[in-house]
Amino acid sequence: MTRKIEELVQEQFPGAKFDPADPNLGVGSFPEWDSLGTFNLLLLAEQTYGVRFSTEEMAELKSVAAIRSRLQKEGINA
Amino acid sequence: MKLLVTGTSHLIPRNQAWKPLAADHELTFAEQNEWSDLFLREESRLREFEAVAWIIALEDILNAGSDGDDFRGTLEILLNPLRTALARMPKVKFVAAWSFPLGTSAIRYARSESHFWDEVAREFENSLRELQVAHESLYLLPLNRAFAGVGRNACFDARNFYAANCRFSFRGLQIISESVAAVLYRTQKPAAKVLVLDCDNTLWGGVIGEDGLDGIVLGQDGAGKAFQDFQRAAKRLAKDGTLVALASKNNEADVWQVFEKHPAMILKRDDIAAAAVNWSEKSAGIHAMAEELGLGLDSFVFWDDNPLEREMLRAALPQVFVPEVPRDVSEWGDFLENLVVFHRFAVTAEDRKKLTQYQARGKFQSELRGSSDQIAFLKSLQLRPEALDLDAALLGRAEQLCAKTNQFNLRTRRHSAADLKQLAEQPGSVVFLTHLQDRFGDHGNVALVAAVTDPSGKAAFLDTFLMSCRVLGRHLEAWMLQECAERLRRRGCKKLLAEFIPSERNDPAKKFLQEHGFEQIPGERRGEAGREFPQIQPASDLYEADLSRLKIPHVEIYDSKN
Questions:
Q1: Which residue from B452, B472, B454 is spatially nearest to B463, judged by alpha carbons?
Q2: A-chain residues within 8 Å CB-CB of B170?
Q3: Distance of alpha carbon B426 from the chain centroid
Q4: I need a labelling partner for B208 at 20 to 30 A (CA). Which of B40, B224, B264, B331 fits?
Q5: Is ipTM > 0.90 here?
């Protein structure tokens, strides 16, 4: 079973309060998700889905929606 | 522990790679390169921490191509703050981890041995090793070695460097995290002491009871060689002071026949410290061996090829570590060699004598049990105890005894060498180590006594009274008490107070005071005693003895000598 990105967000930010259904869930949605938070989340996503993001992508993938569409390019529905 | 993580790279706080370390420690990350200020400044928050992980990527501070003097100066900029911090905070543990670019070219190393980074790394490590001589709180973690297991390239990530200023990959950070955790764990908990081995299909292929001496697989090509290599790995552990024991469901005679008669056996009967070879459950055998050797079950490791036996043992004795043994015997030798639970910071001469000491202990106990008159037997041992005043040369051993003695220990105070020196220097105090020799050999310095007096000198308190479990059963504790009481009496002391503070392991010392002439101090007089000796603990059993009337049993065993 492929893990949902929202589950990863929960794992990376265990104390954070957020709405998993929020279509704009991303950096700044809650205080813990800052730029370091994005980096940590993307490294966790790489480990979880077995993908590799480029230097540029590390700066661009700042929301659940952006990560989801990037994963879809590799046929991963998360 | 409260652990500060700091270094030359950005170390990515809250990354999942830190999980192995965060599981047991409270992590705080300093800002990148904030460490030098923290190490140098007198009033920095460094003193809030019990340990520091200092993680250096040498390429963060040096560029390849600098000339010799240049890089030495830069290394000093790294090392000076560390020197200052080590000297200022001797109780904080420092784990210094470092990596450097490693040349892998087939051509560059073909006709010359050393290049810029090799030289830098050699110099850096030498300086750190020198620092280590003066500072026991410094632990070194050469990262290139730690990374080699998964391959160095997997541990670095140029993308992370450009995106977040971190040289390391997720896997690299994970290995740093696991390695620092392993080092810190060993500073808190000693290595396992006993490897318990199954026999059939573990030390050799096949079942001795069915296949016979000629039928078992050992020493021939293929699996036979792998079983031998596994035995070699066990023998190496034994040489360095890990006790090797057997737990096997077999006829005992069959098993010893293999040890004595099979030409391909690497382990010999003399290498085995204890054995439980019978048809009972292995957990019962391991329990009995723990008693016989006087060691806690948490210092045992059990190796069995049979998953069912492993599961049963885990359920029966959860304190025993039971590794998941690889299915293929060809992997066993390396697997055992790399089992961290046995790894120690260093192997001492004392460690190498372990097996002989424990074998002597086993022989003593079986003779003691077999004798009809135990007092006569003990008298026949020619026990020769000696009290040694605590001088500078003996402080290290005294500190070690305080740190390691769990069973026969009245108060389990883990005094440092500095604490002990202070105790010995107090006016009126009586502090001595006890050395013991008997027919079973020289047992070394095995016990420590420290008594302090009140300002009047009329009353004393037994601050430390402990004895290594390897000489239990000889009533040496009675002799030590006698010696201590005699020394106090000579100084005009009238009364000796003592307390028993229960710990998880010191049951063997529980009844010592009642059985050696002490009477319990009633609750209403505790306050008075506590004012005289503030080190008395609130939840202890408190006793006293009148030194002029103190009658100590069993000391007659030692009369022949005195």
A1: B452
A2: 43, 46-47
A3: 30
A4: B331
A5: yes
pLDDT at B218 over 90: yes
Residue B72, phi then psi, degrees to nearest 5: -65, -40
CA quadruple A7, A13, A17, A18: dihedral sign: negative
Residues A43, B159: C-beta atoms closer than 8 Å = no
Distance from CA of A55 to the nearest CA of B (A): 5
Is the Cβ pair B16, A55 closer than 8 Å? no
Residue B560 exposure: Cα atoms within 13 Å on the Cβ side: 11
Which residue in the set A43, A58, A59 is minimally distant from B170, CB to CB?
A43
Nearest residue in chain B measured CA to CA from A59 = B163
Is the per-residue pLDDT at B107 higher than 80? Answer: yes
What's the pLDDT score for residue B67?
65
pLDDT for residue B354:
80
Task: Identify the three-state secondary structure at position B445.
Answer: strand
- Residue B213 CB partners (closer than 8 Å, separation 6+): B257, B258, B261, B262
pTM over 0.90: no
Confidence at B65, pLDDT banded by 50, 70, 90 = low
Asked if B159 and A55 come within 8 Å (Cβ–Cβ), the reply is yes
Which tokens is B330 given? Answer: 């060809």
A3 interfacial to chain B (CB closer than 8 Å) = no
